[in-house]
Amino acid sequence: MHRPFTLLTTAAALALALAGCGGGGAGGGGGGGGDTAAAAELPAAVSKSGATATPAGVKANVLFGAKSTASQQPPAPIGSYAKGCAAGLVPLPETGPAWQAMRLDRNRNWGHPDLIAFIGRLAGAAQRQGWAGLYVGDLSQPRGGPMTSGHQSHQIGLDADIWMLPPRRLDLTRAERESLSSISIRSADQRSVNENWTPAHMAILKAAAEDPAVDRVFVAAAAKIAMCRDAGRDRAWLQKIRPIQGHNHHFHVRLKCPRGARGCTPQRPTVAELSGGGDGCDETLQWWVTDYLEMLRNPPKGPPPPRKRGARDYTMADLPAQCAEVLASD
Q1: Which CATH class name applies to 3-40+60-299?
Q2: Which of 110, 174, 187, 258 could form a disulfide with 89 if both were Cys (CB 3.0 to 4.6 A apart)?
Q3: Of 229, 277, 269, residue with least CA distance to 19
Q4: Residue of 156, 187, 145 lying closest to 324 (CA atoms)
Q5: 3-state SS, one letter per residue, for the chain
Q6: Burial bucket for residue 146 (CB in 10 Å: 0-12, 13-18, 19+)
C-alpha cells in the first residue's frame, strides 16, 4: 500500500474526476442526449435563440444542449474547462483526410479552431504509424457549456476524445458511426494494458503530448505505466500524460488556453506541479493500480460524503457572465 500518498492523491483524483471526461465507455466518451433531448426539457419561456430572458433555476446544460449551431462571434474559450462556454466554435468536418467524427447524433463535434487544427496534425501522426487515421469522439457542443449527459468538462472547445480503436476505413456511414464501439486497452483487473495495446498507441499518445498546443493528455493509468516502462531516455513528454479513472477506450486531449484568450482560465495545478517537475512515473502513478483499486473494492464504511455539485447542477449564475451573451448570439 502507498499510504503516504493516499490523501494527496485522492484529492487530486477527485479534482481530475470533476475536470475529466466523465461518462465514457466503449463509445469513446460521454452519453447520449443532444439537441432533441435538451430541447424537450427547455421551458416554453425560453426560446432556442436565447433571445428571451432565462428563468431563474433553469439548468445551464439544458440551455446549451438546446443550441444546434455555434454563436456568430469571434472564437473564444470562456471560463474553465469544467465551468464555462465557448464563442465562435467551428465544426470538425464529419470526414476529413485522416479522420472521422463519431457519434454524430450528439452534435458534439465542435471546437476552437486551434483544436480542429490539432486533430488534423494528430491524425497525420496516426497515419505515419500505419493507422488509416483517427476516430474522433466528443469535442464540445456548438456553444460549449455544460452537457446534458456524460462529460463534466469539454465546455470551452479545447477538449477532444480520441478512440483507441485503430480505424480500418474512413468511409463509415452515419449509422455505422453510431453502432461501432471502441476497444479497451486495459486488462480486466485494471492494472496493466492488454493485447489491444500496441507501439502505435504509444507513438500517437507521444505525438499528442509533444504538440506545443497541448496542456495534458488523460488516459488510463495502465497505459501510462506501460509507456513509463518503454519510453527509454526520451521521457520529457511523459509529464503531460496524466492518469485518470476510466479512459481505457479513448484518451482525452486538452489544449492550453490559446494565446490572447483572456477569458480562458488555465488548469491548475500544472502538469509540472503535479509531477514535481518529473515525468510522473512514480509512486503517485502506482497509487492508481493499488490504493485506488482497493478503495473501489472496499469503500470506506459509514455514510457517504455529501454529493458535490457538478456540471449538470449549474445554472447560468454559476458560469462566466459572457456565457449569457454566447447563448443569446445569433
Answers
A1: alpha beta
A2: 110
A3: 269
A4: 145
A5: CCHHHHHHHHHHHHHHHHHCCCCCCCCCCCCCCCHHHHHHHCCCCCCCCCCCCCCCCCEHHHHHHCCCCCCCCCCEEEEECCEEEEECCEECCCEECCEEECCHHHCCCEECHHHHHHHHHHHHHHHHCCCCCEEECCCECCCCCCCCCCCCCCCCCCEEEEECCCCCCCCCCHHHHHHCCCCCCECCCCCCECCCCCHHHHHHHHHHHHCCCEEEEEEEHHHHHHHHHHCCCCCHHHHHEEEECCCCCEEEEEECCCCCCCCECCCCCCHHHHCCCCCCCCHHHHHCCCHHHHHHHCCCCCCCCCCCCCHHHCEHHHCCCHHHHHHHCC
A6: buried
- C-alpha cell at position 28: 469513446
Q: How many whole angstroms separate alpha carbon 270 and alpha carbon 264?
A: 15
Asked if the bond preceding 91 is cis, omega within 30° of 0, the reply is no
Instruction: State the Cα–Cα distance between residues 118 and 242, nearest whole angstrom.
Output: 19
Q: Report pLDDT for 9.
A: 41
Q: Tell me the residue type at 325.
A: E
Indicate whether 62 pLDDT > 60: yes
Report which residue type is found at 275.
S
Predicted local confidence at residue 300, as pLDDT: 86
**pLDDT tens track for 192-235:** 999 999 999 999 999 999 999 999 999 999 999 999 999 999 99
| CA dihedral over 285, 291, 296, 301, signed as positive or negative | negative
State the amino acid at position 7 in one-letter form. Answer: L
Q: Which of 328, 298, 294, 312 is nearest to 2 (CA)?
A: 294
Domain boundaries, the chain: 3-40+60-299
> What is the Cα–Cα distance from 184 to 297, expressed in whole angstroms?
21
Is 217 within 8 Å of 254 (Cβ atoms)? yes
Predicted pLDDT at 255: 98
